[in-house]
């Protein structure tokens, strides 16, 4: 199966490498075209524009930063829409349900097929094919994409109509962002009250709230290492979009709102391209001021 892949950031690069290594033919495109070179060295072809990729490939996957990027790649000149008739488009970016529905409507009205399929799991799961895929939209396309999903992920869910995948992803990530804030506060509290935060990591890891995120990120955070796996700007985007979903549904979300403020503070400190665990730095600043 030949797959078109649009967007070679942290996730898209890892996912397309994985597809290539598992025997798929892949044609890639990235806004900054030079990022395609590494994939070419592994056997990928390059399209000069999204339209050129879609013209060549029946199944096309996008992994783009945010709603603006997702819309631009579809609707702009030389975009996906120009060649979508009879072709398939799977948007795996994390966007809001309205963006996903807008893309779906445009694609299907031009005779294309659409699936949204955002993922849970970060850089390492993308590299090792351990993502959790949250698909919604055209069921027949979901079934057609299963061989690719089996390479990219450890489990795929089909969640029904377009928008449900986006919603599920935002619910998961609003919980994750709030957890990262609680974890960071706990690390600061341990330190300031005279405990060794490394001991806290060991205690947490043996108890009821042990989880891969605390286990994976904690030691690096204590060394001020925020090498980006999941950039903070994207986590804050997800908080913002999840809070908007809360607004729409009259769901009070004070914990998530406070966590969002901390991520915004981190962005204002210039930390947006670091890993989202860098929100810890906002609390260390507060600590030093008090
Ligand atoms: N990193 C992670 O752990 C995870 C990320 N996600 C989600 O996956 C998506 C991608 O994340 P990630 O790979 O980390 O992000 P990156 O920031 O590493 O990559 C973003 C990609 O989007 C492209 N892009 C940005 N703006 C535009 C635009 N206006 N037009 C065209 N292309 C554009 C970038 O192109 P260029 O190279 O030219 O800048 C790049 O290819 C996001 O929605 C994120 O929330 C989901 C799960 C985990
Ligand atoms: O969206 C980020 C993730 O780790 O999942």
UniProtKB/TrEMBL annotation:
Q: Which residues form the active site?
A: 169
Q: Which reaction does it catalyse?
A: glycolate + NADP(+) = glyoxylate + NADPH + H(+); 4-hydroxybutanoate + NADP(+) = succinate semialdehyde + NADPH + H(+)
Q: Does the keyword NADP apply?
A: yes
Q: Which Pfam families match?
A: NAD_binding_11, NAD_binding_2
Keywords on record:
NAD, NADP, Oxidoreductase, Stress response
Domain of life, per the record?
Answer: Eukaryota
UniProt keyword annotation of Hydrolase present: no
Please give the Gene3D superfamilies that the UniProt record associates with this protein: N-(1-d-carboxylethyl)-l-norvaline Dehydrogenase, domain 2, NAD(P)-binding Rossmann-like Domain
Q: Which GO terms describe its cellular component?
A: cytosol
Residue ranges of the 6-phosphogluconate dehydrogenase NADP-binding domain? 2-160
PROSITE patterns recorded: 3_HYDROXYISOBUT_DH (PS00895)
Q: 3-hydroxyisobutyrate dehydrogenase-like NAD-binding domain: from which residue to which, for each copy? A: 163-281
Tell me a Gene Ontology molecular-function term this record carries. Answer: glyoxylate reductase (NADPH) activity
Q: What does this protein do?
A: Catalyzes the NADPH-dependent reduction of glyoxylate to glycolate as well as succinic semialdehyde (SSA) to gamma-hydroxybutyrate in vitro. May function in redox homeostasis and play a role in oxidative stress tolerance by detoxifying glyoxylate and SSA generated in glycolate metabolism and GABA metabolism, respectively.
Write out the similarity annotation.
Answer: Belongs to the HIBADH-related family. NP60 subfamily.
Query: By what name is this protein known?
Result: 6-phosphogluconate dehydrogenase, NADP-binding protein
């Amino acid at each position: 199966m030949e797959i078109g892949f649009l967007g070679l950031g942290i996730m898209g690069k890892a996912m397309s490498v994985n597809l290539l290594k598992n025997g798929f033919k892949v044609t890639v495109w990235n806004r900054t075209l030079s990022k395609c070179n590494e994939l070419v060295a592994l056997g990928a072809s390059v399209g000069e524009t999204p339209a050129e990729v879609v013209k060549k490939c029946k199944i096309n996957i996008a992994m783009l930063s945010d709603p603006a990027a997702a819309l631009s790649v579809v609707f702009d000149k030389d975009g996906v829409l120009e060649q979508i008739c009879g072709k398939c488009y799977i948007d795996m970016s994390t966007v809001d349900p309205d963006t996903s529905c807008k893309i779906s409507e445009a694609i299907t009205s031009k005779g294309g097929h659409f699936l949204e399929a955002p993922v849970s799991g970060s850089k390492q799961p993308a590299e090792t094919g351990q993502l959790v895929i949250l698909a919604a939209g055209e069921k027949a396309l979901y079934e057609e994409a299963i061989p690719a999903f089996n390479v990219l992920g450890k489990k795929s869910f089909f969640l029904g109509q377009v928008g449900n995948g986006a919603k599920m992803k935002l619910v998961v990530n609003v919980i994750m962002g709030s957890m990262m804030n609680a974890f960071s506060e706990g690390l600061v509290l341990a330190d300031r009250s005279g405990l060794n935060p490394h001991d806290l990591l060991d205690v947490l890891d043996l108890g009821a709230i042990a989880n891969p995120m605390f286990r994976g990120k904690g030691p690096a955070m204590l060394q001020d290492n925020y090498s980006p796996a999941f950039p903070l700007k994207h986590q804050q985007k997800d908080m913002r979009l999840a809070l908007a979903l809360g607004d729409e549904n009259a769901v009070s979300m004070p914990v998530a709102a406070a966590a969002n403020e901390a991520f915004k503070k981190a962005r204002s400190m210039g930390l947006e391209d670091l890993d989202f665990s860098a929100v810890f730095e906002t609390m260390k600043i507060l600590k030093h001021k008090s």
